[in-house]
Design a protein that fits this description.
It holds the Pfam family DM10_dom. Keywords: Cell projection, Cilium, Coiled coil, Cytoplasm, Cytoskeleton, Flagellum, Repeat. Residues 75-182, 226-368, 431-538 form the DM10 domain. This is EF-hand domain-containing family member C2. Among the domains are: 70-203, PH-domain like, CATH 2.30.29.170; 226-266 and 276-285 and 328-378, PH-domain like (Roll), CATH 2.30.29; 400-405 and 412-544, PH-domain like (Roll), CATH 2.30.29. The longest helix is centred in the last third of the chain and has 18 residues, at 663-680. With 798 residues, it is of the alpha+beta class. A hairpin with a 2-residue loop joins strand 1 (26-29) and strand 2. The strands form seven sheets. It has a six-stranded antiparallel sheet, with helices on one face.
Amino acid sequence: MALPLLPGNSFNRNVGKEKFHKSQHWGFCNNVMMLVSDEKPGIGGEPLLGQKIKPKCSIYPKGDGSDVPSWVAFDKQVLSFDAYLEEEVPDKSQTNYRIRYYKIYFYPEDDTIQVNEPEVKNSGLLQGTSIRRHRITLPPPDEDQFYTVYHFNVGTEVVFYGRTFKIYDCDAFTRNFLRKIGVKVNPPVPCPEDPYMKIRREVLEHVEPLRPYESLDTLKQFLQYHGKILCFFCLWDDSVSMFGDRRELILHYFLCDDTIEIKELLPHNSGRDAIKMFLRRSKLPKNCPPRVYQPGQITDRAVLNLYGDFIKNQADGFLMDRYKLGEVDQEFYKDSDLSLGVTINVWGRKVLLYDCDEFTKSYYKSKYGIENFTSVSCKPPSPPPKIERKFPPYNGFGSEEDSLRTCIGLKPTPHRRNFKKFMEKDSYGFKSNILRFFAKLVTDKCVDLDRMFVISYYLSDDTISVFEPIERNSGITGGMFLKRSRVKKPGQEVFKSELSEYIKAEDLYIGVTVNVNGYLFRLLNADEYTLNYMEQNTDKYPFSNLKLALQKLKQEEAKSRELKQIFRAADRKHTKKVDYNTFRNPRDAYFVWGWPDHCQTPLLWLLLVTRLLWKTGSARLVDTTRMTLLGRRDILMSFTVGNLSEQEFVTIVRHYRAPEDTCSDVDFLIALAHEKFKKNMFENFDSFIYSCVYEDREKKNVLPTKDIKRLCKSSRLPLSDDLLESLLSRFEDSEKQIDYKSFFSALNWRKNPVPELQPASYLKERCEDIWLGMPSPIPAKYIDYLTLLKDVFGLEEE
């Protein structure tokens, strides 16, 4: 009865076997078919009974994880062994053998071996790769096998092609690798010294050649530090010498060749030549010689004599000084000698290093481990007390500045004007840089009471000119009252050593009284440019500061209700604005009696009267016996009890002025454009409308302003740029678009004519201002008093 086919119950060795192929009896060697040796395996590649197959490559112990091929596991790994070889040297009296040192490299990935011999200088041998990389067979009788990793160890000998190499050491990686695969590594073995190299070294030590080979290789230093420069900030204090001073320097140390250059920082107007190089780039000796050596004076060797055939003017050789008597021993500054706080000798000049840049700090920190880079304080000593120079008083000849220049130097020089201020403040373009004020002469003479003047202040040179407008049948000539010149302030001594003080731009503002060479002028008003200039420079003109002016009004908040009722009484048409004359002086509206004794303030009495007028509808109350003009005290002036100046009042009026009607402005521009068209006989307005209709793809009857302007320019519309810009700005809407039909229809002087321009007279352009007593311009026509009350007191409309 047969046993069941279960594991352990069957003696059939083919159970579980998958490979049944037979190994062949023939193989190939050098492309020649020949019989296989006795190592032929059995069926399926398994060894026969009693057969031991020798391994053809290194077998490494298996580790944990998946198996990978050796050429993957040991990629780029090399075992390095140090070995030497005893080589016999025949026919040599000095030595019978030589010791040659080798490096044996074993590659675990494919069991290949490479042998290199390190190059020795002047050895006389061909060195380098002794055996190229390949697999090496074992010496006979095992020449059918190759060297594996197990054949190498410290203290063993290996034979490569009949040459015996003795291994005396290996590197750390090789030692760890052998230990991991189970090989016990022997300790290092002492290596013998080559007798020939020993004898040669002893001979060279005792023999001094005439011209020894001295290698001075600076290429490595150049390649490593090229472009790297240490920067130090230096100070040379030469103030102890005559006409000497403190000199700021910058020292550059070039790491590539240990040279130093020094540049000088020249301040402005130093009086020195504009040569920044203080020391050209060269090596700097620590101990400077007493004199500068001539070219060729410093040499390593000196030529003593020449010998040879001098008949042919040709020398066969020369004798040199072997003792180097002409050599000069100089010590130069290195990077290790430079640090903060160190004083170096620059050819006899003591230069202090007090600071350095960031690259220098990082270099010294990485190379020398220096952490402290505190800069050295090198403040100059306090200057001696300056002796006050006294000048003689002004003698009355010439100007004060010219007289002072004669006292400063032996050769008088003219006084220098402030040229920078002249170039900045001189008139150019639309900026005149001239402050113009309307002034009135303050005098007791009845003839001069109504004289009007224009005072011009020139910002470029602080000069003043006074001009009087010519009035017909006035009995006064008029014209230039004072030529352009600087005006001194009153009350100064004439003959004194100091320069006189002159009237400045900050001294002129509306409401002030100015003394011009003995004549008193009260400044009543100013032109638009002057007011804008003063409001833009509130640091110089505090009276043009709106915030300061409104703060003075806020101090009288208890009277805000009374002030509001006064303005409402003056605004009979309820337009929420009053004209300038009423805002400043209400005398044209109301004449009132003298107030009773129980009314403490004129404002309260004016309030009672305005209430009465509001109920009765009367325009004026007149007392024939006694009339007191309350309106001569202005509303805001009396409201602030005189704290509000004239300039501050004008600033408030300009800020809260109501916008004027621009219809007249548009009519004036259209009339001006019609006049231009008539002169040029331009009538082609329909083509403009056709072009705009073509451009208007969406049929909205509007086009952007830039497109209208481009069309007018391309069609050569006979209008100037300023006039065209003004017309376009009047017709454009909030989205910067223009209704082209209405625009060009308004410009068509044939279909839509407008009245021609009339030459305006001088008297019609001026507004009658009652508080001046004569014609003069006013800051604004109407003032929005409700916005003023809201911003100052927070009062809303009732």
